[in-house]
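This part of the workshop introduces the protein records we will be handling. A record pairs a protein's sequence with a compact description of its fold. Comparing a sequence with its tokens is the quickest way to learn the format. To make this concrete, we reproduce a full record directly below:
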Amino acid sequence: MLDKATRLLLVEDDEDDYILTCDYLEQLSSHTFDIEWISDPKQAVKVLSKNQHDICLLDYRLGASDGLAVLKQAVENGFNGPIIMLTGQSNDALDLAALDAGAVDYLVKSEMSSSRFARSIRYALARRDVEDERLERLKAEAENRSKDRFLAHLSHELRTPLSSILGYTELLMQSEFNNHANNELGVIYRNGKHLLSLLNDVLDLSKIAADKLELSCSDVNLDSLMADVFTLMRVSALDKGLSLRFESLQPLPLVISIDATRFRQILINIINNAIKFTEQGDIIVHAWTKVIDGREMLFFSIKDSGMGIAPEKQALIFKPFEQIADVESRSVGGAGLGLAICSELLSRMQGGITLESAIGHGSEFTISVYPGNIQYVERSVLKLDLTPNMQQKMAPCKVSGRVLVVDDLRDLRVLVGHMISSAGAKVDYAEHGKQTLDKVTKAQQQGDPYDIIFLDIHMPVMGGKETTIELRKMGFKGAVIALTAATMKGIHSELLALGFNDVIGKPVDSSLLYQCLTNYSMAANKPVDKLAQPARVKSCARFLLVEDDADAAQITQLLLESLGVETVVATSYEHTLAILKNDSQFDKVLLDMHLPDGSGLDLARYTKQYYPDLKRVIVSGIQPDPKQIELLEIEQVLLKPINLALLTQLIEG
């Protein structure tokens, strides 16, 4: 018996038949029925049109009226439940007419005492359930498609103005105006980057919801990864006067198999939250392993001495767009996406996250991940105390000369610098590219140039790529080593082409660092290899930029022209065709995905057919379908916001 009664409408003008039908329905043990009886055909159509019943038994003869007319009208008016036609005697023509009109079955009233009646009712309701499930599935799929389209549109619409904000800020940072508004420009740039990170969080969440987020697992040095996270977050902790400590409760595997980028994202998010919600005291990170269900799992706990989280609020923080904040001071902010993303990522890493917290007594988050089979992996107790005077490890090599370490994060500068100085070299520091150029110029003027520069790629004011290009232009002959967390395919060859001699990934591997010192300290004054010379922008380069947003078009044109590229702007599909008809002498065409009168992909298809020698580049706020990109022979895809580094790479490609 079902707990919920099945709502049945019986349309019957004979009271005796109504009573008999009710008796037969009561004998069905599979369902409990809530029966409504109507004898008037017009009233029946009106009630059925409300679509409030699970099933209808409809008599064919309703006085002078025809039950088929009621059936047809009810279906036309939107009744989507099953209707079974009741007849006084079998009639093939009538039965077919009932089925054609929308009935799911027909029954002779004399059969209502037989098993056929029960079977007909049961099958009709089962078909209704299947149809309901189908409609719900279609509705959910439509909602998902609508959500995907909305997120794609939102991504594009947000990334386009961000291109203008960050692009103009970059231009101003490199102009003389920077001397008068350095701090203000830095604020604009950092907040623009923060908006971009929030946008990326939203897109991460949408990928997770659509089950399209893929993990890329590889062997990772756990000690290096933790050192990188620790040094990064220690800066934020020190800014608030907090202590950040890492403690290993037992020997940990030195190598684990995991998606390092996502795992780093999880740790940084949770530690950053601990710092954000703690005004005084300390944050302690513990690590250990434990066998769960026959598999050895890796655990981390992040404990703070902050304000704590009320029990009724604890479940909410793992849901998207929920955030527990200090409602009185409003001292913290954010979109409330971080922990939701962490929870989903940990689930995909075959682990999870738990929380213990009490108001006024801080919080402790515990996360677990599967680190791969670590049964035979070498282990060690990890100690991350990164102040230079506490580092006891001796360098495996001895070198001399001058080395400049450039990174916008102080702790990372100090860490790398101490490792280098322990090998015997004299170390100097810079925080960004502009400062680097000033120090290199001054050193050359004094006749004591740097032998090697270790240069972070992503920095405010001026990034590592732009700095290296300028260094080579000004005649710097020493080695330039890239420090970067971006280790995707092709990055090594790209950086070599810009003028770097070598690349060290973050977290910095000390053995690679010492190897670079050994390789380049004696050869620092030799001419730079031809492969490492920066590619020069061709003075005759001409690009056609197709972008309907005036601000985005203007900043992209300014950035391209600052790199020596003549740029013509088209604002629509038709405008592009008109320009190409009169002048097709362009090296590349940059196509925005969304135009007011067409699609960038359609325009790419057109140019492929009629201008096959013109190289096509898609510029978009969303990642296009890779199959379409391959089919249209698109040379490259640039994801907004567009910046100087991306355009430099595009020109040199």
Notes: Residues 115-173 form the longest helix (59 residues). Confidence is low (pLDDT under 50) at residues 323-336, 385-394, 522-539.
